């Protein structure tokens, strides 16, 4: 499978990706527990059908010593017993923030309140930003048909 467009050949694409990466780095400095960004990035990518990002974030999480069993259960986190209350709140906010158009109110008040209880203001800002940035990356990759399966951990470091 070949992508429809190669970002590496476009100076403008490089500039946009640089700014998205800067936003992601700022969000990661919010002090969230280390496991939460990996779960959030993986879950949003699954929902959006972004094979490249799903592959990338699964491999990065395993590389960071996350349990593959937990990662395999991210898609079924509602029924899984392996996630903390904070992780569950982050996953719920990720789902509603990713599927924002599917609900009349965007993010349900109960989901928001659960996240507010689990995270400080800075952590919540970081979480919201991670959800927004991964959704942008997912859309970029899905739109151009970036193929999945070849990512190596640390490839973009």
From TrEMBL:
Signal peptide: none annotated. Gene3D superfamilies: AhpD-like. Keywords: Oxidoreductase, Peroxidase. SUPFAM superfamilies: AhpD-like (SSF69118). It holds the Pfam family CMD. GO terms for molecular function: peroxiredoxin activity. InterPro entries: AhpD-like (IPR029032), AhpD_core (IPR004675), CMD-like (IPR003779). Residues 17-96 form the Carboxymuconolactone decarboxylase-like domain. NCBIfam families: ahpD_dom. This is AhpD family alkylhydroperoxidase. It comes from Myceligenerans xiligouense. The lineage of its organism: Bacteria, Bacillati, Actinomycetota, Actinomycetes, Micrococcales.
């Amino acid at each position: 499978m070949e992508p429809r467009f190669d970002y590496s050949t476009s100076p403008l694409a490089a500039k946009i990706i640089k700014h998205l990466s800067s936003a992601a780095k700022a969000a990661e400095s919010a002090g969230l527990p280390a496991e939460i960004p990996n779960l959030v990035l993986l879950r949003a990518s699954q929902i959006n059908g972004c094979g490249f990002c799903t592959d990338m974030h699964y491999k990065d999480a395993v590389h960071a010593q996350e349990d593959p069993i937990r990662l395999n259960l991210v898609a079924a986190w509602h029924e899984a017993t392996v996630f903390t209350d904070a992780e569950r709140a982050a996953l719920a906010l990720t789902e509603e923030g990713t599927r924002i158009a599917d609900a009349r109110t965007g993010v349900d008040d109960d989901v928001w309140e659960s996240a507010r209880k689990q995270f400080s203001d800075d952590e919540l800002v970081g979480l919201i930003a991670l959800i927004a940035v991964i959704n942008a990356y997912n859309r970029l990759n899905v739109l151009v048909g970036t193929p999945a399966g070849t990512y190596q951990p640390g490839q973009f470091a």
